[in-house]
Amino acid sequence: MQGRFWRFVAAAVLVNVAVAAPAEQQIKPVVEQVGEEVRFITCPIYRDTDAGRKSGCWLGDRRETGTRFDITGSPTKPDWNHAVLVEGRVVEGDTQQCGGVLLEPVRVSVLHDQNCTRHMLPAEGFTGRRFSLPTRNIRPLYEPRELPKPPYQEKSFDIPFDFGRDYIVYQLSDYYIDKAVKYAIDIDASRVEITGYAATTPTTVSGQTLREPAELALRRAEVAREWLRRMGYPLDRVKIRAQTKAKVSDMEGADGLTEPSRRRVTLRVIP
Amino acid sequence: MKLRRFRLGGAVAALLIACGSVGVATAEEDDRWWAPGEGRVFPATLDYPNEHGTLRVLLEGGPMETRGHPFFEPIGPYGRACVTCHQPADAMSLSAKSAQIQWERLGHKDPLFAPFDGSNCPDLPQEERESHSLLLDHGLIRIARPWPPRDFDGNPIKPDFDISVVRDPTGCNLSKEWGLPSPDPHISVYRRSRPVANFKYILAMGFNFDPKAGLPLPLDPETGEPASHNLMADGRVLSLASQMRDAASAHLGFLEELTPEDIDRIIDFEKRVFTAQQKNRFGGDVNAGGAEGGPLKLAESEPGRLGSQGIPVWSEFDAWANSDDPDISPEERAWRESVARGARNFRERMFLISDSAGITTPIGFGNPVRDRCAFCHNMSQMGMDVAPGQVDLGTTNLPFADPQPHLPLFKITCKAEPHPHYGREIYTYDPGYALTTGRCADVGRITLQSLRGLSARAPYFSNGSAKTLREVIEFYDRRYNIGYTEQEIEDLVNLMEAL
């Protein structure tokens, strides 16, 4: 498996030598192993590929190893004015699209308090990724919706968050929280228990100590409560709590990534 | 006399255009202006010539008697009615040209030029043209917003930014009676009147979700129901009823509350009005040759549909892409094909969108993001945003906004988090949505509006900074470094003329 990966990388290097000189420097052997989970802070680089809407590439150099990663697949894309926390898994994949070793799944959190010099590369022969609608998306109101059938079960829903934020990530977290709130309303749940978590235990990433503020746990829980309120669920049936030092979870929305699985809100919906 | 439909021939239309604003009040111009309390009948179909062709206004279930109708009758001390600033000939908005004609006719005695908001500031000498220059030259109405802002229930919000006045050409923001130093502090911004038509679309909710806020749609405090949040440039009201109360007190000077019956009658009328360009001076009817332009299609279609998942935006004109109709002139064919190219360009021409709050933050599309006009103008048949559309295009914020020496300039200082694109200090002609939310991150965000009836209601953008449709396209070209060719600009302008 690993041998195939290196052959693939070598082939990619050769192809890119033919189309654009810089590509040889960008896709080079990396220290990381396929399957390894990486976590680093960097200034993002935008590559101006054009395969239609939302097809530009985002790259992030891991300063510790010199590897340039393709981080385009994150639900939250970078802002070229600010540093990003990158968390992802190294996979074999098509490096011809963007010109970086692929991370998938990958999560990007924008660190608004850390400024970067904006940098844009030309396409340099890379194709970019044609946009396709993510499978996790909220459907329009005008589409028919299937309602749950009794007997109703108690269910828990986990909502993922970016590092340091209480904003509901578009086409990821919204999908899960929408499902949770609609389930509570559809079954006329007797109670909803919301627990907000924050990853307050310090970790060191790219030489920086990262920890989420303790009050973020409550703010995340309050966002979930506001979803319930705005969608018409009675708040007198809602119990809210916050928990710091969040543990790793098996939350679906983290796609198996360790650290992102700590940053969440859990809605326990009780019939 | 006033009940007849307007179907002026090309020669008369040309005469009207030639007359411009020099004050030649033709009989046709008399009919174009709906003065408060005239008591006309509003017909089922009204056609008005404009410099690009003919605008059509449809009233579903019409005709309607306007005598005694609260949209048309003067209320308050100024003698104004809703129709004063929402003229049928101007696509239920108000063009600068119409304001100029009214000034030539009646000067400051026309209720349009009421001191409170039809002049640059109420404490200016009202009989002088200069005191009304923003309305006359730029089509701008004064909007006085409370400071600090108030939430939808009227409670003060603690803003996360300070605001100071850098330049005050109207004198209103530093006025001790009307401005920030007054006992009841207000900020005066100057905005275009929004069209009162096609509300089926403006009120439609395609999704019960505002991705720009990461929350479900806001609830109207009166009804407890979700609201589309696409009303008003700064999103300060959530329902037509609230908008009416806001307008009645702010623009009509009405000191009492509108009665529930009045509000119901106005809403009933507003929801039945559809308007769009019907005919082009080169290309003829916009629903000929297989195309489906014009207001009838609007009235008949389902609102709130996302073009990327259903009927593509402006695909009404796809049939004109390769017109083989032998009965049309080369000039007609060329125009129609240009419109079809413009529609395709609108949907497919990619460019890099950067530093535009509401697009590049807080949603994770990325900054920059490669997309096209239809990214935000995404609603089928209408071209507004299916999600609540408060976006900072840079029309009001420096350094992106074009110089507007006639407008006040404010300095915003963010006290908590800096703005993700501008940093801690922002210079703006209009803080927009931030005057509703009190958030520095919302400075310069303005609600997208309908793209219908554009030919009838110049100038454009919320602050009237684009005098022509061409200037609209040129602004985008500069702002996002798009690199449009002359042909692309012409195609997009022709498309907008057809809407």
Helix- and strand-based class of chain A? alpha+beta
CATH topology of the largest domain in chain A: OB fold (Dihydrolipoamide Acetyltransferase, E2P)
The CA-CA distance between the termini of chain B, in Å, is 29 Å
Please tell me the CATH architecture of the largest domain in chain A by its name. Beta Barrel
Strand content of chain A: 25-35%
CATH class of the largest domain in chain A: Mainly Beta
Shape descriptor of chain B reads globular
Secondary-structure element pattern of chain A, one letter each: HHEEEEEEEEHEEEHEE
The gyration radius over C-alpha positions of chain A equals: 21 Å
Uncertain regions spanning at least 5 consecutive residues of chain A: 1-26
Number of discrete helical segments of chain A: 4
- Looking across the biggest beta sheet of chain A, what order are the strands in? 1-5-6-4-3-2-7
Global mean pLDDT of chain A: 91
Percent range of helical residues of chain A = 10-25%
- Strand order within the widest sheet of chain B? 2-3-8-9
How would you describe this protein?
The complex is a heterodimer of chains A (271) and B (499). Chain A contains four helices and 13 strands. By secondary structure, chain A is of the alpha+beta class. In chain A, the strands form three sheets. In chain A, strands 1-5-6-4-3-2-7 form a seven-stranded mixed beta sheet, with no helix packed on it. In chain A, strand 10 and strand 11 (208-210) form a beta hairpin. Chain B is of the alpha+beta class and 499 residues long. Chain B has a domain at 10-147 and 189-274. Chain B has a four-stranded antiparallel beta sheet with strand order 2-3-8-9. In chain B, helix 11 (330-348) packs across helix 15 and helix 14 (469-479) crosses helix 15. Residues 1-27 of chain B have low confidence and may be disordered. Classes of the chains: A alpha+beta (271), B alpha+beta (499). Chains A and B meet through helix 3 and helix 4 of A and strand 11 of B.
